[in-house]
Automatic annotation (TrEMBL), chains A, B:
Subunit structure, as described in the record: Homodimer.
Cofactor(s) in the UniProt record: pyridoxal 5'-phosphate
GO MF: glutamate decarboxylase activity; pyridoxal phosphate binding
Keywords: Decarboxylase, Lyase, Pyridoxal phosphate
Signal sequence bounds: none
Protein name listed in UniProt: DgyrCDS12146
UniProt cross-references to InterPro entries, sorted A to Z: PyrdxlP-dep_de-COase (IPR002129), PyrdxlP-dep_Trfase (IPR015424), PyrdxlP-dep_Trfase_major (IPR015421), Pyridoxal-P_BS (IPR021115)
SUPFAM superfamilies cross-referenced by the UniProt entry: PLP-dependent transferases (SSF53383)
UniProt source species: Dimorphilus gyrociliatus
Lineage: superkingdom: Eukaryota
Chain ranges passing through the membrane: none
Keyword Transmembrane helix appears in the UniProt entry: no
Pfam families: Pyridoxal_deC
Length: 548, 548
């Protein structure tokens, strides 16, 4: 089988890579020795036909097995570097779209799992085929999600994490990563504004679970006996969040046995911000009906409109009524790193808990979600079962570093290293300039849309990186803005999106919201994006819109 | 340039770094321009001193930026390959232990996060320093956890996952991985024995959360109104699990609002197996007290003793009383792949749900946990909130492939690719021979312990890969086996473990269990391990034990 190699690594780079491994793996440091090896080393790069994984480390620990292992790893890396290069090349597509049935056909038996092993040549080919059909989420013209981009430091950090392959369970098996988690969480709490970064926290598998931790802690504070006796002994607990908040708040009400009907949606104003007066009114109604309000979640950057709830005003209401104050800034938390834009989260230091996902605005690879709490120890009291067969109390080191018993997971992936490494490489100023730059692009996009015909904003003055708008095709522009037009407009974005995906040139999300017909939600979070990419998207929407 | 920690940033470098961030953020890409402005700066691209991440992709897309990116990646890979080689070298230590305070000292300001960025030379040094203090979980003599070993295919699969950096949210952004998840989960259900692999399932962030899904689904089946109304409207739901089961079952009772007091621990026999008669008795007691039994979890490979509950007998009791039958074989699930050992899980096809962690016995990197359910659709009914702003119903492709709304996460890490790739590379027969081989080693270890003086088994005939035993030092062997001896024996394993960690030569877990004093739990799950490594561990325990 002729295996087409990526083009980025020239023969010389390959030789160098091979030489690096060979010399390092033999533990030889002398330059002369290395050069001798480089001179005599003749790599055969298409050598994996009929070679199976059992011939790699850890099974074959011979010199040859070690060499083969490093060659195999370098082949995979070559494929990955090629993908990275293409993802950053604007002349390549963002995706090569196929409907599920046709993608199954295209991949054919490549997808099957059978009795017999495949050779490593096939495994390399599998990697290439997989990447061929991946959506290039790092492409400068991928605008579809809140999480976009591919940061090289985060990525290589994740590679190291996979190689270290340990569990954030105890200090015993993750000493360095445990210390890093403490350092990064402390830093995040300092940035939130809690004194000396004091408090508690943990990395959770995504913002939805981070929010779950917050509701759990709040429930424990008001009704600790629920842990042992269940929700049947508690009063009817009521929680509040805006109608624009992330759906995980409501889902957590379902999971925790609070019930979605006891999660009250607070009205929002024209900008999509929670109305504190409505919160107060709903709290009173809940109390009058015998319920016990205990939790409110303010959103710092809503999913669709990117709106920030007025945290200070919500805190005033919350604390007056004794509620736990949570801020879900999974999306907007990164703004805290910008001197110019941290005002969006004014008052956040008053919160009891904060969800903040560095895998969104800060550009860490998936996943990296922090839940930060003001009160030290509540996580452990709430979640600990003191399983002494897992968390031995008679260890020879300071077991306060064992974080496992405050998590709701047992095994827990190391999500901190990549973020720590990024922070080393960027510094605070690197994150700040990244966020300021994205905001500049958001303002640029807004200006462009205002200058062109046929674009209408969902909210007139977006304050963040979400810019939501309708594209109104020429033949609809004369129509009165009534429900009849809405019916037609509702179909425009899905149609343009479908054509866009078939072409594969760019990707942007759309959705309805309440009674509003489908609109585009442009998200600017990709550090690779430049103004030209934004122009490209607008042009593409216009072009496709006229084909309707 | 030495890799000395933290001494790299001179005033000039900082200035340059800050400058680069600002110019790049203005979209100026020309390195020549930058250099003109900086005057005397002369970069040496063969090294990474004074080179910052802004000079890599995606910021610098020039040929030089691409080359630099690939060089940087190869440098990281070189460090990782070196770590892999050392992890497989028996002459290296498993860990270089430091107490938390002294590790902080050793790493020094290398751990700090500051205003300013570090150059890539420092980042490479950070990676090396981090790995230096990692516990080598892939080392052939690391026996401390259920998850050990480092599989090259799983690891490179995880690297690809990090590079593809997408979210298992919708088919739209994870088309290939969504298909792979369907294929792998179907395969796992076939192996469980469900007809044609039908049913439902999802990958969860660890076994504890997989178990949470099971209890959620069971609660939904018996009391669907809990989703909207909360646990206050439900009868007092009671769940059952053996006293040796994983603590997450009980913790899930706390989380879900059932209450830990309503999670009843069923007695176990001398081998640690749940006693079906006690289950039936406890069900009757619960009913008599007005409770509603709804869920039982049988364990397939307990954490400490590696015991398998009698699934068929438990099913008989469970179904007689209308309970949801769950099998938590997070640890033992891999045994299903062995014709010889799948009998340990006889009856599993009768279960309603199964937790099975390929990151344990099957050797996938962390994390990879499946929750499999017999009933198609229950996950979605239970967890879906039909948030149409996230799961648009008018997409142009078959949206039954969008898995996001049945998850309790929103963003979800791609845990399937590495497992799929391993399965391609090993085939069923590869997994089977791996598991059979580990069982051979377990039998070997048991034989060795029987032949030597001073070793006593916790259970006489371990049936799986956990071998639990006491080491009784010479000066205690004459003592009668009474509580006085137990008090002394309780201190032996922690002391030996502490010395073992200080020496760093091998690592094995210990814990108490019920009234039993601390004992060693040897787990054989590392494909790198050979009989000599087992001899080494026993010798080491004897050697250290005599130093007490």
């Amino acid at each position: 089988m002729s295996y087409e190699l990526g083009t980025l690594m020239h023969q010389r780079d390959r030789k160098r890579a091979a030489y690096l491994f060979r010399t390092k793996s033999l533990g030889k440091n002398s330059i002369q020795e290395n050069e001798e090896l480089l001179g005599s080393f003749e790599p055969d790069w298409s050598k994996f036909e009929n070679v199976f994984m059992e011939e790699l480390l850890p099974k074959d620990i011979s010199k040859q097995g070690q060499k083969r292992t490093s060659q195999f790893i370098l082949e995979v890396v070559d494929i990955l570097i090629d993908y990275i290069r293409k993802s950053n090349d604007r002349s390549t597509k963002v995706l090569d779209f196929h409907h599920p049935h046709s993608l199954k056909e295209a991949l054919g038996h490549c997808l099957n799992l059978d009795e017999d092993p495949r050779d490593l040549e096939q495994i390399l080919s599998d990697c290439k085929e997989t990447l061929k059909y991946c959506v290039k989420t790092g492409h400068p013209r991928f605008f579809n999600q809140l999480s976009t981009g591919l940061d090289m430091i985060a990525m290589t950090g994740e590679w190291l994490t996979a190689t270290a392959n340990t569990n954030m369970f105890t200090y015993e098996i993750a000493p360095v990563f445990t210390l890093m988690e403490e350092i990064v969480l402390t830093k995040m709490r300092e940035i939130i504004g809690w004194q000396e970064g004091k408090g508690d926290g943990i990395f959770a598998p995504g913002g939805a679970i981070a929010n779950l931790y917050a509701v759990l802690a709040a429930r424990y504070r008001i009704c600790p006996e629920v842990k042992e006796e269940g929700m049947r002994v508690s009063p009817r607990l009521i929680m509040f969040t805006s109608e624009h908040s992330h759906f995980s708040i409501k889902r957590n009400a379902a999971i925790l046995g609070i019930g979605t009907n006891n999660c009250i949606a607070i009205k929002t104003d024209a900008q999509g911000k929670m109305i504190p007066e409505d919160l107060e009114k709903q709290i009173e109604i809940a109390k009058a009906s015998g319920g016990v309000p205990f939790f409110v979640s303010a959103t710092g950057g809503t999913t669709v409109l990117g709106t920030f709830d007025p945290i200070n005003e919500i805190c005033d209401v919350a604390f007056k009524h004794g509620l736990w104050m949570h801020v879900d800034c999974a999306w907007g938390g990164g703004a805290l790193l910008s001197k110019q834009y941290k005002k969006l989260l004014n008052g956040i230091e008053r919160a009891d808990s904060v969800t903040w996902n560095p895998h969104k605005l800060m550009g860490a690879t998936l996943q990296c979600s922090g839940i930060l709490l003001k009160e030290k120890g509540i996580l452990e009291n709430c979640n600990s079962l003191r399983a002494n067969y897992l968390f031995q109390q008679d260890k020879h080191y300071d077991i306060s570093y064992d974080t496992g018993d405050k998590a709701i997971q047992c095994g827990r992936h190391n999500d901190v290293f990549k973020l720590w490494l990024m922070w080393r490489a960027k510094g605070d100023i690197g994150f700040e300039s990244q966020i300021d730059r994205l905001m500049d692009l958001s303002i640029y996009l807004q200006g462009q849309l205002r200058e062109r015909e046929g674009f209408e904003f969902v909210i007139e003055e977006p304050e963040f990186l979400n810019v939501s708008f309708w594209y109104v095709p020429k033949n609809m522009r004369h129509m009165p803005k009534d429900s009849q037009r809405d019916v037609l407009l509702d179909k425009v974005a899905p149609k343009i999106k479908a054509m866009m995906m078939e072409r594969g040139t760019t990707m942007v999300g759309y959705q309805p919201l309440g009674d509003l017909p489908n609109f585009f939600r442009m998200v600017i979070s990709n550090p690779a994006t430049i103004p030209g990419d934004i122009d490209f998207l607008i042009d593409e929407i216009e072009r496709l819109g006229e084909e309707l």
